[in-house]
Protein 1
Amino acid sequence: MTAQRIGVMGGTFDPIHLGHLRAASAVADSLDLDRVIFVPAREPWHRGEQPGASADDRFEMTRLAVVIDPRFAVSRVDLERPGPTFTIDTLADLQGANPLDLASSGDEWFFITGADALAGFMTWRDPLGILELAHLVGVTRPGHALQAIELPTGSCTLVEAPGLDISSTQVRERVREGADIADLVPGPVADYIAERGLYSKGAS
Ligand code: NAP
């Protein structure tokens, strides 16, 4: 298999929205990526607040969303590993026994996430190990002031994603208010949220 440039789009995706999809397209275009694997996190280790939707629902919404671009795929690696999600494990699992059979030696890997999430990168588990496995890509919302990210020189590329002026918080708030989310998430994701009653006032 020819070597590929593979992006790993890490996030809680609670829920996935059009901003995430546009950001992944912008990064894939600008860094010439062959694939972008979306990896919903099981338990974001650093959060006090747990996700509003279960891991299986967040995976299913991500699976429904990624069909829009043939470069996109979704992986369950973070959901199948018990305990909190650490990016060092995400990358090691994807690059080792790869269930999607997408990898070969010689591939170049890129870990993509929100630039805000990368602000604390040097406190993550084994940050230097992560940098041996992947180049970091931080996506930024237009007009959003960037926090200073202290990272080894050349280890991270920032990409402004014009479509990232949407947040998962905004989607959850709109659902709670009973407002329309058709302009924020793909149609099948909006349908899934409605059918499962996710994020509504009475949802657990
Ligand atoms: P977060 O702190 O919930 O998100 C911070 C900001 O980044 C939010 O504005 C969020 O917007 C945005 N964001 C998150 N993922 C994004 C993505 N893929 N593309 C564009 N924007 C994104 O971050 P998180 O979701 O918990 O974590 C992000 C990734 O970093 C996950 O893969 C997580 O496992 C990893 N991480 C690893 C460690 C570690 O290894 N110790 C520590 C922290 C995070 P939305 O809410 O709209 O997405």
Protein 2
Amino acid sequence: MKGLEPQRSTMLGAETTARANVNVALIKYWGKRDVSLNLPATGSISLTLDGLWVEASCQFGSDADECTIDARPPSDDDRVKLLRFVDLVRAEAGIEARARVRTTSSVPSGIGLASSAAAFAALATATSRAAGLRLEPPALSALARRGSGSAARSIFGGFVEWHRGERPDGCDSIAEPLRAPGDWDVRVVVAVTSEARKPVSSRDGMERATASPLYPVWVETAGRDLDEARRAIAARDLEALGLVAEHSALKMHAVGFAARPPLVYWRGPTVECMHRVWALRADGTRGYVTIDAGPQVKVLCEATDAPRIADALRDVPGVARVLVCAPGAGVEVLA
Ligand code: PMV
């Protein structure tokens, strides 16, 4: 496929730094068709968010692999994940050199805005360039996906679709931009209801969801949701996009509710925030809820309505903080 062929340059040893923003899924990725390649059972659509980024730097040629996350040694799990990803890049580039890898994040920890999507999008870009590869965005998206599925989408800015793909090797499971960040002045208001680490990771949650009796319905109906969202984004129709995004999120959580053992990421304030958004909507302020694998509530709205929605959510008992995010850019090479 065009753009997927790596081009090799001769430079090794230079440090490369890249920065990527987080994204929030409006049509969710929840379940895999191939666990080891992180291939999704369905497509998904997201919005990349400004100001919540991860920067990754990589240099090959050190004596041993070294990595830090926010200037600290990573946990054993994170180290394994990171170095497994560097191994993929080494294999692709045909090199064996050891690497020094650093990531720093602007995303406050525990706010439930998957910084792993931004981290692996930045890492895919920094490590592949440092290894002498010059990958086009579709190939970067496929590489980022190997670290964390949703990272495939953070390569691009604005509204983004990640395709399920059909091929067993996954080379057609890549993201593409649908609408540039400056094209539609929407906001995502994030209500943080709990800063505790989530008890079930997305990876484990997806595995449990796959055994839910509602999972086949989830997979069967995803195509319809994607079509609806794509049309709404093309028409800049906030109500149509918001309603299908809310439906996708609630359906994803319903799959978990019906799993055995059940998977419930919500806390009390999560439900209270939803009701507050629906009450505002009944009064004419258009906000639409989405929730990921955690208790935080994210609300899609027009920029002009964001302050009113943020104020209303700040008043909900149990809400620890509220952030307002504009659409953000795709991955950038900084040095
Ligand atoms: O990319 P992962 O493995 O962190 O999974 C992301 C799962 C959700 O955030 C719940 C949905 C999505 O599409 O981002």
